[in-house]
């Protein structure tokens, strides 16, 4: 039996989202050190990469859908932004939100790099080919995987788990930016701080909009521009 399914089966629906969030976040805390050790072995690196960024999130989403009362809308995957409903409202929010995401991350990164100029021990940029179709394919993969998986885990799933607390908004605003920042610690102190600021901004925006699509699109666009 799938170990995630077995664990989820022993825990009621009330706490299953907490379990899924914990299972999903933990591998990213050790992702950087592992990547630094296996970066020179392409087959091992990309096998591990796909397991962490594709297979595991897919299993977590599958487990979430099997939780009693699950709705995709609970993760923010729907067609309503605040008091506006419909695809045009979501598309406009995505269009407006993308430059904000990029500006917040780049601005915070530039500020903290002045204070913490030290480099990290692993950066994903080192895994991007210098040219050719591989260059574009890897950048697109990094941007899509980060935008989809990180927003699913650190905003959608964590917010659903935070709803089990007495003060869900407060719990979410405390945990989401911190967890999002900690999984980027291998990139150095400046990026650690910049991702906390981005996570705080994204968490506040999610609480306001209750929609995950603008965050996903904004995150993807930010990473596309950053990596290229």
Q: Enumerate the strands of the largest sheet in spatial order, edge to edge or round the barrel.
A: 1-2
Domain module tally: 1
Write down the secondary-structure element order. HHHEEHHHHH
Helical stretch tally = 8
Shape: globular
Runs in which pLDDT lies below 50 for 5 or more consecutive residues are 1-11
- Sheet of most strands: 2 strands, antiparallel
Topology:
Layout: H1 3-9, H2 13-38, H3 42-65, E1 80-81, E2 84-85, H4 87-115, H5 132-162, H6 168-182, H7 189-209, H8 213-227
Antiparallel strand pairs: 1-2
Helix pairs in contact: 2-3, 2-5, 4-7, 4-8, 5-6, 5-8, 6-7
Describe this entry's structure for a reader.
It is a single chain. The chain has one domain (3-227). Helices cover 74% and strands 2% of the residues. It has helices at 3-9, 13-38, 42-65, 87-115, 132-162, 168-182, 189-209, 213-227; strands spanning 80-81, 84-85. The chain has a two-stranded antiparallel ribbon. Helix 4 (87-115) crosses helix 8 and helix 5 (132-162) packs antiparallel against helix 6 (168-182).
